[in-house]
Amino acid sequence: MKITIKDVAKEANVATSTVSRVLSNNPRISEETKKIVNKAIKKLNYKPNPIARSLVKNKTRILGVVLPSKGEDLLTNPFFINAMKGMSMYAQSKNYYITYAFSKNEKTEAENIKEMTTSNLVDGVILLRAREKDESVKHLKEIKFPFVLIGRPEYPNEVLWVDNNNFQAMYRVVDKLIKKGHKKIGFVGSIKNLNMSKDRFKGYQKALEINNIDYDESIVIHKGEFKEHVGEVSCSELLENEGLTAIVTTDDLIAIGVLKELKERKIKNISVVGFNNTKLAQYQKPSLASVDINADELGYQAAKLLIDNLEGNNEHISNYIVSTEFIERQSF
Questions:
Q1: Cα–Cα distance for residue pair 129/60, rounded to 1 Å
Q2: Which UniProt keywords apply (predicted)?
């Protein structure tokens, strides 16, 4: 039989309102009464209903996560799965729930955010991509609704955000390739208006500059999707340039497509590096070298930053940088 707050009140010989005040840590309740009620709670193994308590406090304890993709696309890009896992782990530890909305484009993303914020469905919002001139960020700032961004925003001092140092991560990869003897290194990126994409591209350019290698626009490609076929097509285009010895990409799915095209052409002397270090990377032939961005940690810290803000904790902290690690494998 489910234990209720009335059972606890009867066991402690107090009113149900007193139990409620103890659960909410009301300072008007004496320490002696708190001890008696908490003893009854422990004895009966009573578990407060977090949703019911939230309604009393006029809070939902629900976070809205806006995914920049259709639902069926998520299974093809492990980054979102891992980020969602991290968010869920921290939210659950704090008795928060998560609801997800899927957005095909910026318009549907804006519609989802408007619905969440105007209908009091959620206490805060998590966005999984940072773009230049982001209308969703602009709207949330204007209505002063709590939110956190996974990705570096245009105005980093004005919003809560979590990210990697994408510039540094790509710089180190390209620098390692150059130190290994590579001089002609192709670049394949996607969705240029994402701040993550811009930072990784800048890291690529800076590594060339520091090592006195001329930037060659003919071996740089920007596409519109993080998908395997993008890597295949891009690789085919890059191979029109003679002397190419390495290709860096901004996502594992693109890198896997590059490997597939190289394998199709029986080319084995071009190094390939991906980003995100998805589970798929280690099972490629050759196994794919990749930058581990700790996607689950990004999600975990995003949820933590938002919940801390909602509960008035660590209000002076506005961002968190998650470390990256280069995982060297056979393709390097």
A1: 24
A2: DNA-binding, Transcription, Transcription regulation
